[in-house]
Amino acid sequence: MLIKKNTEIPSSEITPKWLYLNRRKFLAGAGTIGVGLAAGKAFFDLTAPEQQVFAAKLNYSRNSQLSTNEPQTSLKDVTHYNNFYEFGTEKEEPAEQAKNFKTRPWSVSVEGLCNKPHKWDVDEIVKLAPLEERVYRHRCVEAWSIVVPWIGFSLSNLIKQADPQPKAKYVAFETLYDPKQMPGQRGGVFGGGLDWPYVEGLRLDEAMHPLALLCFGMYGEDLPPQDGAPIRMVIPWKYGFKSIKSIVKISFVEKQPSTTWNKEAPNEYGFYSNVNPTVDHPRWSQATERRLGDFFRRKTLMFNGYGDQVASLYNGLDLRKNF
């Protein structure tokens, strides 16, 4: 595992290198491009590489009820500053290392304690429910955050299809294991020395919550590989590493499943991993965060600002012990 010994997060890990180098170009254009979506698009146009990021358009409707009105993070930031150790431990590496990643054909096995196990083609899963655009806050454990228009539908739609048995208390997820395509899985420091494949898990009631999004796209189009193509989770009230990418298996289990970062460093990454500014990471504070594209920090919100929707899931649970 790639371990950082310092107690403060280096600025180079918060503000992307390309953003710093292009700051003058951005500031020159900022006076004429406005704010919000227009600013995000112009920012992307100023700095984007020539290649097309996405492969296809998606048909969806906007879910305003579950969306934040906060300004969206630029497309460039979200596609070129990523945690995806399968493609490298540095934030800029996944965009380069994943550019030839093949996402078709792709299947997801739904199995375990359910009455209707099935191996789904990802293009079948997309048709299970109407696709929605939901603009979610997304908070990374390293104290940076983004606001992204994700596209998908509540995971509960797939769970209902599987019909979990009464003994099923948790949902376990597994990422693709393919060292030929994912250089980080070949071992060595490039992949952080993790035990592959990447695995994650939720309690069944967490997985059934309407905010838990099974995601297929963002910014109006398919997910790019570095952001978890072709299918990932987005769990906005938890730290980003819980939102597992490039899923190939979903299993219903009775006991709490193992999760990659909890196995790797249990004193730093708990199973629940709810955004909680009162519980510091052992090597840095979680009280504040920096939104990608911003130069100043902001206060971290409990449950990432989704407390009204999800706090009841944890009634009676010690959130410092069960971090």
What distinguishing features does this structure have?
alpha+beta; disordered N terminus; globular; 323 residues; five-stranded mixed sheet; eight-stranded mixed sheet; single chain; Sulfite Oxidase, Chain A, domain 2; 11 helices
Short description:
This protein has 323 residues and is of the alpha+beta class. The chain has helices spanning 11-14, 17-21, 23-33, 36-47, 75-80, 93-97, 122-125, 156-162, 204-207, 260-264, 307-310; strands at 61-62, 107-112, 118-121, 132-139, 144-154, 170-175, 199-203, 213-218, 221-222, 232-234, 247-253, 288-291, 297-299. It has one domain: Oxidoreductase, molybdopterin-binding domain (Sulfite Oxidase, Chain A, domain 2, Alpha-Beta Complex), CATH 3.90.420.
Oligomeric state of this protein: single chain
Radius of gyration: 19 Å
Tell me about the largest β-sheet.
8 strands, mixed
Using the 3D structure, state the CATH architecture. Alpha-Beta Complex
Discrete helix count: 11
Average pLDDT value?
A: 87
The tally of strands reads 13
What name does CATH use for the topology? Sulfite Oxidase, Chain A, domain 2
Class by alpha and beta content: alpha+beta
CATH class: Alpha Beta
Order of helices and strands: HHHHEHHEEHEEHEEHEEEEHEEH
- Name the overall outline: globular
Show unreliable segments. Answer: 1-55
* End-to-end CA span: 21 Å
Assign a percent range to the helix content.
10-25%
Protein architecture, described:
With 323 residues, the chain is an alpha+beta fold. The chain has a single domain (11-314), classed as Sulfite Oxidase, Chain A, domain 2, CATH 3.90.420. 21% of the residues lie in helices and 21% in strands. The chain has 11 helices and 13 strands. The chain has helices at 11-14, 17-21, 23-33, 36-47, 75-80, 93-97, 122-125, 156-162, 204-207, 260-264, 307-310; strands at residues 61-62, 107-112, 118-121, 132-139, 144-154, 170-175, 199-203, 213-218, 221-222, 232-234, 247-253, 288-291, 297-299. Strands 1, 4, 5, 8, 9, 10, 12 and 13 form an 8-stranded mixed sheet that branches. It has a 5-stranded mixed sheet with strand order 3-2-11-6-7. A hairpin with a 4-residue loop joins strand 4 (132-139) and strand 5. Helix 3 (23-33) packs antiparallel against helix 4 (36-47). It is globular, with a radius of gyration of 19 Å. The two termini are 21 Å apart.
